[in-house]
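User: I'm designing a mutation panel for CBM35 domain-containing protein and want to avoid disrupting the core. Could you give me a predicted structure to guide residue selection? Please restate the sequence first so the numbering is unambiguous.

Assistant: Good idea. Sequence first, for numbering, then the predicted structure tokens:
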Amino acid sequence: MRMLPVLLSSFLAAGPLVVVNPGFEKNTEGWTFTAGTGVATNRPHGGTRLVYLDAGPGKSVSQTITVPTAGSYSVSAWIATGGAGGTFTVLRGGTAVRTVTLPSRSTYARYTISDVAVAEGEQLGIVFGSGSGWVNVDDVMISPGAKASPAVTSSNPKIAEMFEWAKAKAGSWVHQDGAAGPLDVDERRPSGTGEGVYTPAYWAGYAHRSGYYSRDFAHQLAGAHILGLDAENRNMLRSFARSATEEHKYYPVWALNFDASTYLAIDYRSPTDFVREVPATFELVEKANQAFRWTGDRAYVDDPVFWDYYRHAVKEFVELHDGRLPNGIAEGTGKGIFQGTASYNEVSGEPLAEAGDAIGSQYQAYKAMAALAADKGDSKLSGSLEEKARRLKEYFNQTWSVKQGTGEFVRAYTVDGTPLTGFGKENSWFMPMKGIIDAGPRNDAYLDFVDAEASGAGRPRNIEAVTYLPDTFFRHNRAETAWKWMQDVYDKREDNHVSSRQGLNGDYPEVPFTLVSQTVEGLMGIQPDAPRRTVATLSRLPGDIGWLEVADVPVGDGKVTVRHDGTSSSTFTNGGSSKVFWQARFLGAHRWLEVDGHRFPGRRQVIDGVTYTVAKVPVRPGQTATAKHAS
């Protein structure tokens, strides 16, 4: 086999494995070019330059790097083509590890070769080859290989395929700690304003901007943990917490560069003029508690930066932003994203003071802070916040969401106090997603309404908004509907994103991260409490998934494997070194449960108004247990 020419420039130094001149902004530096290739400025993905390969066989652009630190790495590049047959290859020691054969696609798409294991001092090659039409390449990136690699097997091949795609795609968005990269890149400044040193972080937001966003990050955190990105989650969340200063009226900034310290310029003009949205303040509290439950990392309760953020969010932030319609609910200004909006729905044009996604998120923030306070040993604070959550939910169901004299469901209020009904996208589906609606017929009817609207004229144009729908329906055990929306997101991954700069839907980072978490937390119903070495499970398998197993899910300092056979049998394996208490949950009231062949009366448990039958099973390291219901 004839090898394509490889590079030229190599280096050996402790630190991250980096590509020389990854965006071709330094012209040909670091790359080897054959005839019929070069650097152009006509159609870059980012910055001002790209490389091109003319049509026809035998042309290549390549680079070889000497690996400074042994490990596993993933290599990605944005590529557009005028014809099929081009190639993207990664070599190890001069031998091809994997080659991606490129389709004909004139829109830039992101291609990744994942988890290439290399030794210190070994040669890693990156080669782009020509095809039947032109090939354009830009923005090459190397990510650290998977830190955790849960695996899915199932009677339904689609969910296994979906999970593997999502796992690889999500991993391609992770930055190496210590790598240099541009700052303040956006559509107005495609080359940014300079260079910084990146810290542990991953992309959460538009791929044509050099930062991560609070809203996207909050939705990606669980999937990131499942893939082992706990250092990244903690670093990114702490950067938002640190930004929520008194000067910012306790709002976290909307986005930070990947150095985790400078604010992304397109969204931050001054301490009084920056993008801020009420739900994000509260969601970050909720997600901190979620991270603590998954990891058991005491930083989430002991680090004063985190703790100050939580307590300001549930107290001073609410007090400072509850002036127009004083009722204990944090408000927006109704004046746009740079003055503070009440809702994540940025395109409605409605001058909202209060919104369903904000009040739902505030409710969950109270519950999260109560749980964190309990683990910190402050029972008084925990009790007061539980009571605040209870009162807020009661007020929501009896007053806030009720339009007097009608059966309509209120989802927002304008700055003059006018209640709004109908479909408001985020300020509609966040209400059931956050569990603030009382269980029962009213909640069931609203879920039907959300599904119908999102399936019809109310469907969001941006795929990242659709990624919330599986979470909404999983929370209420509507497995068929949630699975329908997971498939909808996955099946549209090759469609063009509504933002042409973003490329394909599947290249929006939120898509793969949420498919990972929706498989583990949604379909498998895995709910950890690592500080108490407890893991609950609940099968939410739809009818066309007969059985599903997820192996090696990280929880605390160990791993668990869970299998569901339909909705009546669950199997749990403790892959860690300490005993785990498994709560095997089954929806509904069942007279009998069977654990490892032993039959005993079912134990009833009501959670958020829904009845479950639960078996509590201690599982030793290396042990497997099976629970079934037989009613």
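For picking mutation sites, this is relevant: The chain is about 30% helix and 25% strand. The first strand starts at residue 32 and ends at 33.
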